[in-house]
Write a structure and sequence with these properties.
17% strand; Aminopeptidase; 275 residues; 8 strands; eight-stranded mixed beta sheet; 26% helix
Length: 275
């Protein structure tokens, strides 16, 4: 069963959505099998490395100079439903963090890089059973990394129907409690020619709950991207949109999307003074 079986309605015509029009959805999603990550990890029928996996990187910051300040990593990028749960979000998480998903080479080589965390479904099928909604994400590493970051960006996948869009729509819904972050994301997507919709109303799609992992930052607000199935599929070579093949078969749209997000992060960080 899909993680969100909701029927949503656009407040405005689809053509206007590309300009960042607000989307309001009607909540009607089914409950997850696991009420939290902790409950999932305690299920002895699941095997880490076979059913699911976790990856993260927290960069070392060493400030030993009393006459200068070494900036800390200000942004953490996460994919709570990576691998086979919401296909493509793991690869995007790595690319937005500054690493090529195929070999983890710094991309671009000059950086910058961001901390990242992801939970991934590793099964050949039925990965949707491993979905834990973002407001219930209690992974200790994820929470610690988000709590130690000024900004958090969370990457998700949805169908056009769940987004309240027409069948086949290639779009991204921009949510979360950080209004400035949302503004920069919508603007950069528009500049890149990617259809962006500002999500509002339904808690999970819009990422508006303070309990949502994207909002568990130092500032108690972050951003959430819900990327439609069709947009994610268009980022990978035909026939290669699988967990095993995606990382080495990215298309230009994948990098256009990642670059737009990275630019929005850079704009946001430029507004944040480091004391």
């Amino acid at each position: 069963m899909n993680r969100r079986t909701l029927i949503a309605a656009l407040a405005t015509a689809p053509a206007l959505a590309s300009l960042g029009t607000v989307l309001r959805a009607t909540p009607a999603h089914a409950a997850d099998l696991y009420p939290s990550n902790t409950a999932l990890y305690r299920d002895k029928s699941l095997v880490k490395g076979i059913d699911y996996g976790r990856r993260h990187r927290r960069h070392l910051i060493d400030d030993q100079n009393p006459a200068a300040t070494t900036p800390f990593i200000r942004t953490t990028v996460i994919a709570p439903h990576g691998g086979g749960i919401e296909g493509g979000t793991s690869e995007l998480c790595l690319a937005v963090a500054g690493y090529h998903p195929a070999d983890l080479a710094p991309t671009p080589a000059a950086g910058p890089v961001h901390d990242f965390w992801m939970f991934e479904g590793l099964r050949s099928s039925n990965n949707s059973a491993l979905h834990v909604t973002s407001t219930h994400c209690d992974d200790t590493v994820a929470r610690a990394m988000c709590a130690g970051s000024l900004n958090v960006l969370s990457l998700h996948g949805c169908t056009p129907a769940q987004a309240g869009l027409e069948a086949g729509a290639r779009a991204v819904l921009v949510g979360g409690l950080n209004a400035t972050f949302r503004q920069f994301l919508v603007a950069e997507f528009a500049a890149a020619g990617i259809r962006a919709v500002t999500a509002s109303g339904e808690e999970e799609i819009a990422g508006i709950s303070p309990e949502n992992i994207c909002n568990r930052s130092m500032l108690a607000m972050g951003a959430q991207l819900e990327i439609t199935t069709d947009l994610r599929a268009a980022m990978f070579a035909p026939g290669k949109n699988t967990r095993a093949d995606r990382a080495a078969n990215t298309l230009p749209l994948f990098w256009t999307f990642a670059t737009a997000v990275r630019t929005a992060i850079q704009r946001l960080e430029a507004t944040q003074e480091i004391l």
